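Hi team, as promised in this morning's meeting, here are the two structures we talked about. I've kept the exact order from the run log so nobody has to guess. The first one is mostly here for context; it's the second one we should focus on when we meet again. Sequence first, then the predicted structure tokens.
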Amino acid sequence: MEVRGDRGACEPASPMSRQVLSLLLAHANHVVTLESLVEELWGDAPPRLARKTVQTYIYHVRKALREGTQGTDGTARAEGTTAADGAEDREPPRMETESRGYRLRVAKGQLDLWHFEELCAAGQAAQSRGDARATSDAYREALALWRGRPFSGSAAGVQLSAQQARLEDLRMGALERRVEADMALGHHRELLSELKGLAIDHPLSEVIYGQLMTAATRSGQRQVALDAYSRLRAAMLAELGLEPSTGLRSLQQSVLEDAAPPGGRAAAPTGTWAAPASPAELPPGMADCVARQRDVSGIVAAVGPVGAGADGPSAVRVALVTGAVGTGKTATAVQAAHRLRSHYPGGQLFTTLHRPDGTPVPAREALASLPLSSGYAAERLPDTAEDMARLFRSWTSERQMLVVLDDASSGEQVIPLLPSSPGWSVVITSRRRLEGLPGAVTTVPQPILERDLWQAAALSGPRPGEFSQLVESLVASHFLEFRDSREGPAFAVPVLTRLALPGRTRPARRHPPREVATGTRGGSGHGAPGSPVPAGAPQ
């Protein structure tokens, strides 16, 4: 723990005063009660004049800060690290007396702990974006602030000891994430020495040992990985009476299999696909997906083996399914893909091009997702989108698969994901028409209410076809009971169709049939109030 001003170090000389300052810095800008200070300094055995003694220590802290920062700013360093940048031209830290205790006012940029936490937040944000380089850089800069144990140079009571443990956990978390990012960049051999030292310092850390085993294996040093596992297991049994976790045991088993003698499974060459994987990533098909058979058949004809696309039978075949949210784009695309899957034994891939927060998936991440699904080693993927695109073109030239690209945002996002060789079929869904897709056949599913279902049947009796499917799905096993409603079934059609999710019609099973029927009563007799009935609808 250090405090520096324009005159150099300005922390108080007394160990007890330094301990008081450390606790105030740990709770900077918050009131630390007199009782907390007494507990930190003396535990449950305070002297008779403990409160007065604390006031003396506060005086020494005030004096040190005032003498070290007169006329300038001051920079507080709570972790024994380098000072945070950006502390210039700010009011120096000052002590405030409150009714319950004391508050140390510290401005942004004056406490290195805050700078560390900001850098860690930047690292987490980069990690969520899939940017391994930025993740590594942010955590590396954050860890460079550390020079030793938190609050070293002052005694530690119960409260400071808890703060030390918390900060050490933060540092270890940052270190583990930085190592993880470096491994994603392929720096396995460079990490070995560091990880060996960390394993000695943290003999019971499964995360560190797992990273050491992974780095050693990917560097061709499987015996190092197996020795590391043996050391960790022995330490855990001796100290904790526990076996390593299932994940670590699985990692050890995979290393053993790679190291098997002739006749065992050989390790895959570095930088190649681990096996001729045939991924099957399509979401489950929906047996109750009705009112989409015309669209599904159109997609199958456009991109299936009998369809040639606009550029002839040797071209990559592309179908684009567009429409507003809720019109059943994904359900339609997946249903068509299931119809086609038997023609693509090489595999079927499915990837979503939007994140849950609505932002588009970056180009490199989207490009990487497809080879990764087929077993390509993640650590061998290029860092840039341009290099990843070149690898993707090379990879697709050797395969024939079916791909569903869901929720594309633009043609620019999709074009790099189109394979480079014939034999591939691609089905794309998007909320808008995409420009620049050569030979794409476009399908626009319409909401069920806008289809020709009105003309299909009059509900006076069960009839085959999509309309009967729709109503039977809505009222489930109570179809006949509902059909006998005195008001006549035809008027209920607008409400019934709105109860169904577009393209899949099972959710209405949650509604009791009488509740559904009651919800349709009243109004014009042709639907719920305000529900339009197209011309020609059965009356």
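And here is the second protein, the one for discussion:
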Amino acid sequence: MSEERLQIDKRFARRRRVLGERLEHQFNRLQAKIEVILDAITGLRDLPEDETEA
């Protein structure tokens, strides 16, 4: 493989890794918010006044 191709592959690998980390973070935040809502629905706790707290 050419040096240019190797550099391109490295950049894409890094971008895939960073994107994966960001998506995982967003998923975890969404999951936490869903848990708060489900707990409120089942009566385990009250919803936070500011829905962005979770």
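Starting points for discussion:
Residues 1-54 form one domain.
Helices lie at 3-41.
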